[in-house]
Write a structure and sequence with these properties.
The chain is α+β, with helices and mostly antiparallel strands and 396 residues long. The chain is built from 12 helices and 5 strands.
């Protein structure tokens, strides 16, 4: 039985939806021109604009007319939802689909819709279209549930949860719409309670999703700016400012465990630069930084504090605080020695070792500052011993 006529005619609701989509796409385009490398943004503004254009084309071509203009609008919708999905994957750090695969998926969905329209009935076209779009929304919801939580920075989690909820609701309504059209025919596609709820929800979602995406992008940008202030540009580890912040936060804890300072110096680094060039020197610094970072446990940290010097804070959790730090230092020493380094042009191997000096365990910020000096003295002893070795501070 057909639902009662809605209070708002479908033409008005679809116009609102189209305007919201095109407006959101235009706003995202203006931001994209300023931030062309923002993850997902390039796909989102195109997807939003295509969706809006498809709805406008459907309005002016006739809501229930099946002709080339209607099919072209459906094709735009299917292509837009694929772009939007890839934008979501890009934002949460998942690989996007290659263009041949995107086009193949689009062709499969669009081909199924045309076949349904020609071989079954006009209403079958809408069933296939809404089923395909609803499935894409459902897939986006699953991607966000799986990759938009703990793996993302804390400030991003709230907008990601909102986006997940909005897309989940849109997926449910779109799939219900496909089911309703399959049961009651083409008349319920644009008339009836479900059609009204669908278009009003989609129109409001177009506005909120657009604003949520922009919110997420600016939060991501803000995080990147914070990283630039606290991270070394070449190696990606902490810089001196970032080191001071991490150490201050550590000792501000009431139950802060002791820290041991490990001062790491790349042996004969000037000779590497002079012999192979600064490009090779940069590669060596980056490789050493990655190796140091990869060996650290949760709570440990590493900073670049000079040209070829790194400082590691090793969190002690045993009754013998030097044991853990000493084992870590020896591991680091061996790992760097075994690095398969080559020159920047790849023509020759480059040997690289490090000397490491350890401080005693430091239980306060003042002790940490003194511990840096003690680690420096221990590093001097490691160099005096022939380099490529580890030494602990000794007062004797």
């Amino acid at each position: 039985m057909q639902s009662p006529s809605p209070a708002m005619d479908p033409f008005t609701v679809i116009v609102m939806l189209a305007i919201h989509l095109v407006g959101s796409g235009g706003l995202m385009f203006l931001i994209w021109r300023l931030m062309p490398n923002a993850p997902g943004l390039g796909r989102w503004w195109i997807a939003s604009s295509l969706f809006g254009m498809a709805y406008l084309g459907r309005l002016f071509g006739g809501l229930e007319v099946l002709d080339l203009r209607a099919l072209a609008g459906d094709g735009l919708m299917l292509f837009a939802v694929l772009l939007f999905k890839d934008g979501v994957r890009d934002f949460v750090g998942r690989p996007v689909l290659r263009w041949p695969l995107v086009l193949a998926l689009w062709a499969a969905m669009f081909g199924a819709e045309i076949a349904a329209a020609l071989c079954i009935s006009p209403s079958a076209r809408h069933v296939v279209l809404n089923s395909a779009i609803g499935s894409m929304y459902l897939l986006m919801t699953w991607i966000l549930l799986r990759h938009g939580g703990a793996s993302q920075a804390q400030p991003l989690r709230a907008p990601l949860r909102l986006l997940t909820t909005l897309l989940g609701g849109l997926a449910l309504l779109t799939l219900l719409r496909a089911w309703d059209i399959g049961l009651d025919g083409i008349d319920v596609a644009f008339d009836g309670l479900l059609a009204q709820v669908f278009y009003i929800y989609a129109s409001l979602t177009a506005v909120v999703v657009g604003l949520t995406l922009i919110w997420m992008l600016f939060l991501r940008l803000n995080g990147q700016l914070a990283d630039l202030a606290t991270r070394d540009a070449l190696t990606g580890v902490l810089n001196r400012h970032g080191l001071d912040e991490v150490v201050a936060r550590h000792f501000a804890r009431r139950d802060a465990p002791p820290l041991t300072a490990l001062l790491v110096d790349i042996d004969h680094f000037k000779k590497i630069n002079d012999s192979y060039g600064h490009a090779t020197g940069d590669k060596v610094l980056q490789a050493v930084a990655r190796t140091l970072n990869a060996q650290l446990r949760a709570g440990d940290f590493v900073a670049r504090i000079g040209g070829e010097e790194f400082l590691i804070g090793c969190v002690e959790e045993t009754h013998q605080p030097q044991d853990m730090a000493l084992m870590l230092a020896r591991r680091l020493n061996q790992s760097v020695r075994e690095l398969p380094l080559r020159t920047a042009d790849g023509t020759a191997p480059v040997a690289c070792t490090v000397s490491i000096g350890l401080s005693p365990g430091c239980s306060s910020l003042r002790a940490w500052q003194k511990g840096n000096e003690q680690a420096d003295q221990a590093l001097y002893r490691a160099k005096q011993a022939g380099r490529d070795t580890v030494r602990s501070f000794s007062a004797g």
